[in-house]
Design brief:
six-stranded antiparallel sheet, 6 strands, elongated, 7 helices, alpha+beta
Amino acid sequence: MKIFRELSFKGTAEQLSKFSKEIGEYAKDDWILQPATERLKDYLQFSYRGTSLENAIVSIYIGDRLQKGEIKVGNIVPQKKNSLTVDEYNALLMQFYEDVIKPYKEHGTEVIIDPPTDDIFDPRMIISEEALQKLKSFCYGANKTTGSSHPLDKERWFDFICQTVDDDRVFEYTALANFLQDEAYWGAKPKDFIGAMGDYAWSEDKAYELADEYSTAVDVLQYYKRTRGI
């Protein structure tokens, strides 16, 4: 499934402060660094005025992030519509990187600047490989009309949940629900298929039902470990 790309900048407070003072010089042609205001004094805002993409403002929060060693593009806000699609957002971020950030990077800087992250979701960004294999075992073997209710399915489901808690790498509710429905990853259910088991994505209802179960179970297990000192 498609996800929003991220672009971050890492370094010491001094290096990042220098970056924030210099990067505006590279906003040229289709890009303009917005004048600082009292309300937005902790932000760098770059306005895209070109014609090939949606007009929008790319925002980088500075604030207290300098001392933490990392700042990033936190949001891209359209100027002529209510919201951007994932593809529109990512296209603007890539254009910003190519037009503004990359020239700055090539000019020489001590700040660590990696290219924008991938736009295809990789579950291993969130959970471990071992947990992913356990989730696959559950998904490929489960009855997709009954979720985790069958005893064998429940055992595989619980094994996956416990693994994520043991790893301290757990899914956020919406991310898991969306991932379970991702036909690009799990496959699409054949139109003429009448069975309830197979290598295909979960329905929206079942995906959110499982995400509910997962979130509740994780909360209980984390509470148990925290209060028992485990």
